[in-house]
Amino acid sequence: MIFVDSNIIIFSEMTEYPEHKIAVEKLSHTSQSGIFINDIIISEVFHKIFKLIGHDTAVKRVKNILSSKSFIYVPIEKETFEKAVELTKYVRINDAIIAQQVIDLKSSLLTDNVKDFRKIKGLKIIKLR
């Protein structure tokens, strides 16, 4: 199972983005083994889609993601938050929480934000491109 960063999901939802095609391909390939998402990822996806194309569309798309059999929602444990705070010396809090959960669950992270995430020791990163 692989966590998918919000930027990949957003790219897949926005056909006018240049990254759309590759994001859809990667998600399609990754969905065969299951895609982990969490509160932070869903929140970021909702926020960005809301800003780009409106509330009703954001609600619909996030509900579709949450009801999809390809996406597996994983709650964030308190211990993950506690450890993530230490990672904020390298990345913003949302990315720290995502990274720490990926590490805790011995998973990997598919992202286009390699620049920031590579600062975190022990995080397995799968690059979008």
Describe the structure.
The protein is α/β, with parallel strands linked by helices and 129 residues long. The chain folds into 2 domains: 6-75, no CATH class; 76-129, no CATH class. It contains 7 helices and 5 strands, in the order βααβααβααβαβ. It has helices at 6-13, 20-31, 39-53, 55-67, 78-87, 93-104, 114-117; strands at 2-4, 35-37, 71-73, 108-111, 125-127. Helix 3 packs antiparallel against helix 4 (55-67) and helix 5 crosses helix 6. The mean pLDDT is 96.
Brief summary:
This protein has 129 residues and is α/β, with parallel strands linked by helices. It contains 7 helices and 5 strands. The longest helix has 15 residues.
Q: What proportion strand?
A: 5-15%
The Rg value, from CA coordinates, equals: 14 Å
Mean pLDDT, to the nearest integer, reads 96
Q: Helical amount among residues, as a percent range?
A: 55-70%
Total number of beta strands? 5
Order the strands across the largest sheet as they lie in space. Answer: 3-2-1-4-5
Q: N-to-C terminal Cα separation, in Å?
A: 19 Å
The number of helical elements comes to 7
Overall tally of domains? 2
Give the ordered list of helices and strands: EHHEHHEHHEHE
Give the biggest sheet.
Answer: 5 strands, parallel
Which descriptor suits the 3D outline?
A: globular
Category by helix and strand content: alpha/beta
Low-confidence segments, given as residue ranges, are none
